Hints:
Layout: H1 2-14, E1 21-24, H2 29-38, E2 42-47, H3 52-59, H4 66-78, E3 82-89, H5 97-110, E4 114-119, H6 124-130, H7 141-151, E5 156-158
Amino acid sequence: AKIIAQAIQAMRTQTSLGTIHLNTNASKPEGFARCVEAGLDSVRVSLNSVLEGPYNAYYQPRGYKFSDLEECIKTARKNGVLVSLNYLHMPGWNDRQQEVEALVDFVQRLDVQMIQMRTLHIDPAMYVAAVPMPDGPALGMVELVSRLRRECPHLVIGNHTLAKFRYGCLQG
């Protein structure tokens, strides 16, 4: 994080143009805050679930916890950094009622600007064995996206990185 923050700061001393973007698992709040302070514009946080149990089962975090991820997102938004989720979804899991409700709450509570929907490319049998299924019926991926559009009208749903200068022009 120290080296990345120094690189961001060095770029910002050369120009204010462009978007400095970071892809991360958002596991180290102190290091992430250094990058934000150095001039980070945009961040994409990868996760398979906004529920701690399925997230932990898949990522098996060492040296951090799910709440650190939320803290990094809060730091980003408090400092005007655009936040996108790299949402690695698995139909049958992420479209369960519990996950959909938690995702809507997560986006609203943490003021996430974008979700990049990406299919999690993993053997479903391995995923079944490792990741607990959220509660409730499967609503379907179409309903998940429809609900996000309805309940989070500010949210851009797509598959690209937001540019700081274009954010106001993008529609969900």
